[in-house]
Amino acid sequence: MDCIQTDGNARCADPCEHYSVVDDDWRSTNNTSTDIHCDRDIEWRGWYRMFLEQKSAQIPERCIAERRCGTHAPLWITESHPGVLDGIVSRTVCSAWSGSCCYFSTNTVYVKLCHGNYYVYKLAKPSTCSLAYCAEVKEPPVQLTCGRDKLQVGLDLNSTQSFGLDPFSGHFAARNCSRFRVHGDVVWYEVEARAGACGNIMTTNGTHATFGNNLFLYSSNNESFLLPKRFPFSCSYPLETDTSLNVAVRPTLEWERGISGTGVKATASMSLFLDSSYNDTYPAGQVTLPVGSPLYVGVSVEEMDSNLAVVLENCFATHTSNPEDPVRYPLIENRCSTDRRQVSVVQSGSSLQARFTALLFLLGEEYREIYLHCSLSLCDQRRSNCVPVCQSRKLRSVSNSAALKPITTGPIVWTK
Question: Greater confidence, 30 or 229?
Fold first, then answer.
């Protein structure tokens, strides 16, 4: 408590509840502009709370280089800030100038840590000009790992406790989501990379899917109601993917089993299946098939959120493994079959799997290797209907989808 002046009357009160605001952005320790200010020109009365860009700030506990904080000689305190149980403490103020961290005569300020993890100061005029109090935003160091299926927020154990916070008290937007593990000196909180998980919000902008949430952490003082410290975080994932399936298919006029297996393990993969059930894939390696055989092609995208759907944009065949080969034979164009008698789009835009069937014929007059390529996009099903509607081989545009890099399967080889 302190003697607080309110409406001209003095009374004993908590300075955490009766303070003025100091929110000059020029006080930032990052400010090196030549606009000079002096705090000797201010009539400091009572207690003050400091802000920078609408965030609680504090006076630095270290020597600040001269000509920063919008002044000639920045003011800083020589001892650490108090804890909640310390109450009101006095701290010595120093000023950096002419190569010295304490050049001008020192003065004393008073500090208190308030519930809610912010400080209030009873400030005093500096001895001369131009001197001004510095401010900086300090928070416990937070680490963020954006995994394929998990978002992980890491808190340094010792630093978090030094800020008066309980590192084991955290939870996400959903209070029952408080799963954590301790690895070394870091407490890791985990949440699935999925919309709605523990209150996750997912947004898409055509190129990225972003998952956002907050981690709330409570004070070490659990005997009274205190507002938790909020740590917002987000992870963005590109809606582009890469995959290829290097499978050889050899056409022949005699029936020989064997078409390729799975593709490179990446965010997307293409597989060739034995039949229309799309259950079993061909074993890996070169495959020989008769002319006119159906190719059952399945595409799977290893995304983390079921609100996204993969759309077959363009699929085509070439005689080389290069998807940029100028000589190509289209199977699907603009999300629709080029010839419904030979190509059928079985599934597209309804989930993270897509399927189509194509009849295997010679592309020219030679029995040469054939490669299949598909370009894909991911579409947010919450924002639009992602299933292509094809009429007379034309498609109504599917909005809110982002192009993916082509995936490849092949070669498919023919033999006489």
Answer: 30
Distant-in-sequence, close-in-space partners of 365: CB < 8 Å, separation ≥ 6: none
230 exposure class (CB count in 10 Å sphere: 0-12, 13-18, 19+):
exposed
- Residue corresponding to tokens 């998990």: 150
Phi-psi region of 99 (alpha: psi -120 to 50; beta: other; left: phi over 0): left
Token couple for 296: 């059952």
Is beta strand 407-412 parallel, antiparallel or unpaired with respect to 390-391? Answer: unpaired
Q: Cβ(228)–Cβ(218) under 8 Å?
A: yes
pLDDT tens column, 119-152: 999 999 998 999 999 999 987 888 888 887 889 9
The string of pLDDT tens digits covering residues 152-210 is 999 999 888 877 789 999 999 998 999 999 999 999 999 998 888 999 988 888 778 88
150-156 and 142-146 as β-strands: parallel, antiparallel, unpaired? antiparallel
Q: Which of 358, 365, 373, 360 is nearest to 251 (CA)?
A: 360
Token readout for 172 is: 């996400």
Q: What is the pLDDT averaged over residues 66-92? A: 92
Nearest to 251 by CA among 286, 281, 296: 286
Can you read off the two tokens belonging to residue 222?
């659990």
Burial class (CB in 10 A: 0-12, 13-18, 19+), 107: middle
Interval 364-386 mean pLDDT: 84
Tokens for 411, please give them.
């070669």
Taking Cα atoms as reference points, which of 210, 237, 267, 239 lies closest to residue 404? 239
Contacts of 43 (CB under 8 A, 6+ apart): none
CA dihedral 177→180→186→191, nearest 10 degrees, is: -50
Q: CA–CA separation, 245 vs 95, rounded Å?
A: 66
Q: Are 388 and 335 in contact (CB under 8 A)?
A: yes
Residue with tokens 């989501």: 177
* 270-311 confidence digits (pLDDT tens): 888 888 999 988 876 677 788 788 889 999 887 667 888 899
- Return all residues near 261 (Cβ < 8 A) that are at least 6 apart: 245, 247, 271, 272, 281, 282, 283, 284, 285
Q: Quick one: which of 161, 136, 147 has its CA closest to 52?
A: 136
